Amino acid sequence: MSKFFYILLILLSPFFFSAEVSAQMQAAHWVFGSKGHISFPFGYDSVNTNYRGSLINTSNIPSSNFEGSASISDVNGNLKLYTNGVDVYNGDHIKLNEERLKGNFTVSQSSIFVPVPGKYNQYILFTINAHNLIAPRNDVSVGFDFGLYYYTIDLNKNNGRGKLNIPQNNRLLKRTAEKIAAVYHQNGKDIWVITYFENQFYAYLVTENGIEAPVISQVPYFSSVLGYAANSKGQL
């Protein structure tokens, strides 16, 4: 592979869920920023750039604020879904949500898609809103949209257009940093989704039956909630 490809992959890969690009093609399309769209049609050195993505279409928001985004393709490299954590679109650039999602496109990693293991064309979208965490740590009421949320998407519905579902009590975590990542379980089927807050990692296992309770791992370093708007930034 070319040196350019490696550099581009290192710079942008934190924003997207991907398996091996050359093997499963789930990272064949990167949709991000203000209508940015880079495709890898063969998973190797062929890099095409165009701006047909509909991710952001709001002229009164500075493009520098478009930080977090996520996209996912199928195993054949066909674009299936993309989001900025606020709106979600299918591969035909049709918006699926009617109300704003509880994410935030100004956080470092606003969202991530994972395919539901064993379910064709079904996905779970995780969103994060960790921006401007100014409320006291122990005063996070239901009225706050901070934290980690999830939505289910079935692209088999509506004649292939897809349907977004908002599960009841879809907030998984009241507070989190601007960080989220996904990796396959050692069984090669299920998927771990991981986020972080203060001094704890929260790992949620996604199986064909849904999302399991998190495995919580504590680490020595403590990222204080004081000044947390700055402490929470960065990628996982």
Written description of the protein model:
- Helix content is 8%, strand content 32%.
- The protein is globular and about 50 Å long.
- The longest helix is centred in the N-terminal third of the chain and has 10 residues, at 3-12.
- Strands 7, 8, 9, 10 and 11 form a five-stranded antiparallel β-sheet that branches.
- A hairpin with a 6-residue loop joins strand 12 (180-184) and strand 13.
- It has 236 residues and is mostly beta strands.
Structural topology:
Blueprint: H1 3-12, H2 21-24, E1 29-32, E2 36-39, E3 48-50, E4 70-73, E5 79-83, E6 88-90, E7 111-115, E8 122-129, E9 147-154, E10 163-165, E11 171-173, E12 180-184, E13 191-197, E14 200-207, E15 210-211, E16 215-218, H3 228-231
Antiparallel strand pairs: 1-2, 2-3, 4-5, 5-6, 7-8, 8-9, 9-10, 9-11, 12-13, 13-14, 14-15, 14-16
Question: How would you summarize this macromolecular structure in one to three sentences?
Answer:
The protein has 236 residues and is mainly β. It has helices at 3-12, 21-24, 228-231, and strands at residues 29-32, 36-39, 48-50, 70-73, 79-83, 88-90, 111-115, 122-129, 147-154, 163-165, 171-173, 180-184, 191-197, 200-207, 210-211, 215-218.
